[in-house]
Amino acid sequence: MVTAASSSAAPVSLGVEVGGLRLQNPVMPASGTFAEGLARVMDLNRLGAFVTKTITREFRAGNPVPRVCETTEGLINSIGIPSKGLDYFRDNVVPFYRAYSPPLVVSISAPTVDGFASMARDLTIPGVAAIEANISCPNIEEDGRSFAMEPRLTEAVTAAMRRATALPLWVKLTPNTGDIVAVARAAEAGGADAVVVANTILAMRIDTETFRPKLGNVLGGLSGPAVKPIALRMVYQCADKLAIPVIGCGGIATAEDAVEFMLAGARAVQVGTTTFVRPMAMIEIIDGLAAFCARRGIADVNALVGAVVDGNAAPEEAEALL
Amino acid sequence: MLQSLETRSAWTANDAPVSDVETIVLSHEAVNDEYRHLVLRAGRPATLAAPGQFFHLLCPASGQDKPYLRRPMSTYKADPEAGTLEFLYKIAGLGTRALTTLKPGDSFRVLGPLGVGFTLDDSWRSIVVLGRGVGLATLAPLAEAAARKGIGVTAILSARRPDLVMSAERFAAIGADVRPVLDSDGSSAPENVRAILGSLAREGRADAIFTCGSNRLFRLAKDFATEQGIAGQVALEQQMACGLGMCFCCVRKFEVDGELVDKRVCWDGPVFDLKEATSW
Q1: Helices (H), chain B
Q2: Residue A143: CB partners within 8 Å, gap ≥ 6?
Q3: pLDDT of residue B242
Q4: How many C-beta neighbours within 10 Å does residue B228 have?
Q5: What's the gap in Å between the CA of B109 and the closest CA on chain A?
Q6: Does domain A16-321 have CATH number 3.20.20.140?
Q7: Closest Cα in chain A, distance from residue B279 (Å)
Q8: Which 8-state DSSP code applies to residue A90?
Q9: Which residues fall within 8 angstroms of residue A291, CB to CB, at 6 or more apart?
Q10: Which of A113, A202, A226, B251 is most buried, by CB atoms within 10 Å?
Q11: pLDDT of B216-259, one tens digit each?
Q12: Are residues B177 and B95 in contact, defined by beta-carbon separation less than 8 angstroms?
């Protein structure tokens, strides 16, 4: 194992402040790719934070199978947010994470503005450190359009949650929108403490033998290394225009990927689909980040944030460091 | 009756944590046109896998075949003394096709052991295992575990042709009563299998029934267990992504208290009570 301590340089500080939370390092799971099962594989206390699979207030069965299909360097999923509901989560899942030190971020979804607000309120309980609002889901009050497709809906739902909870509020954006920067600014205006950029990209595959879609729900969301350059571009665009932190998410598989997202402006990163292939990936990325910083003589990982050298993102810091 | 959850865990759960083990291929042989037998040096804790548990295999990329996800595969044999782990698989798609390129000496990652395996009740004196094709690979370690506990085994091995009857020698080696049934001579027909099961029940040699590998045999086993009022278990397959209960892609429908509910094959199974499992 490579750690900062094994290098001749001074130990690297990996701690970051993200949207109201102090994290011991900038690496956390992406919602939907993490659950209690990972405790059988790794020491969960190593992670920067925990982010749960999205929960809804009521029980949800989820979508018909097949729920995933492979594609080149990636995965298309349409799981459909199966959820045992808020009460089950509060009584069974929150207590599980009390045994661990990283903060618990709870991903929520609802079909209405009030639904989001009431879930944020009802999850403002001991053991929950922050709310991540998955606003990529359809809004039944707006003909099923996703909240995160439009700045107006994003600001409205964020503001409603902001009034409902004092917990740090992260808003996870969808890449399936014409102007993600406008949506990110709307989340900030609504009172978000951070934005997560971004959710999966709408996609599909068709079986050429049967002529049928490869997913039970026909359309799904693409994730994995295939989406990384797109997510990175979106992080870069958003970070430049926001005062609140951006959390990068999309195809991060290695420490170099995490560095790339931080250079683009991400204060922290979420690792998702890669965990399905390499269950220890998050630990490898944490160790790899420390090793990268040590190798480059960077004492504090925060120095990477926005340090891409292009005249827009903190050029004076970048020159000093790189 | 199936045992309580505590007893079930005592048999199936390994205290050893799940690990992503870098194994070395010791041998990789074609059993016939369709099946391959893969033997790995894996060491502990992987080789502590209980019958019915599975591993998540990181198949190598090969030519046009570049599987992104791992592939779940049930344990054919786990020998903690020898430090070896074995799989018997059928070439069924991109992942298993890529797997066939592994050569002795290659290194290869397997995550496991995963999932809930078979349960054996100390009160049983004689069990029936009923499987087809590569499903027999999953049942072979169970039969051996039963023999170690002094439980008699009748193995009904279904296949298309005599050369596709898998693992007959492993069942025979533990003293099982081996009954091959074939499509080629018609003996695999449901009425004949039902007749065999009926006679075993009359002889008091069916305290429980276990099945894997065929929906038709699953239905026969389920009906038989219901008629006889005996316990039964089925090892199920489903397309998986994470293998650790996180992604909810490998769900199937189960009958619980009169309702159809989704359960995760990787986490709640892959071995399930026949009473709850439904036809596929």
Answers
A1: 5-12, 94-99, 135-148, 168-173, 190-202, 215-228
A2: none
A3: 96
A4: 17
A5: 10
A6: no
A7: 15
A8: I
A9: A2, A3, A4, A7, A255
A10: B251
A11: 999 999 999 999 999 999 999 999 999 999 999 999 999 999 99
A12: no
What is the per-residue pLDDT across A49-90, written as a single tens digit (0 to 9) for each? 999 999 999 999 999 999 999 999 999 999 999 999 999 999
Give the helix ranges, DSSP H, for B67-210. 94-99, 135-148, 168-173, 190-202
| C-alpha closest to that of A197 among A181, A221, A215, A214 | A181
Interface test mutation site (partner B, options A41, A77, A207, A208, max chain B beta carbons within 10 A):
A41
ipTM score assigned to the predicted complex: 0.91
Q: Tell me what the mean pLDDT of segment B146-157 comes to.
A: 97
Contact B212, B155 (CB under 8 A): no
- Can you tell me the distance from the alpha carbon of A232 to that of A251, in angstroms, rounded to the nearest whole number? 9
CB contact under 8 A, A68 and B241: yes
Position A6 confidence tier, pLDDT thresholds 50, 70, 90: very low
pTM here is 0.92
8 Å CB contact between A182 and A43: no
Q: Which two tokens stand for residue B35?
A: 């099946």
Q: Which domains does chain B have, with CATH numbers?
A: 19-114 (2.40.30.10), 126-235 (3.40.50.80)
Separation between Cα atoms, residue B143 and residue A159, nearest integer Å: 61
Run of H or E residues at A22: strand A21-23
Would you call A286 helix, strand, or coil by DSSP? helix
Q: Is A122 helix (H, G, I), strand (E, B) or coil?
A: helix
Q: Which residues of B touch A (CB under 8 A)?
A: 17-20, 58, 66-70, 94, 111, 238-239, 241-249, 251-252, 262, 267
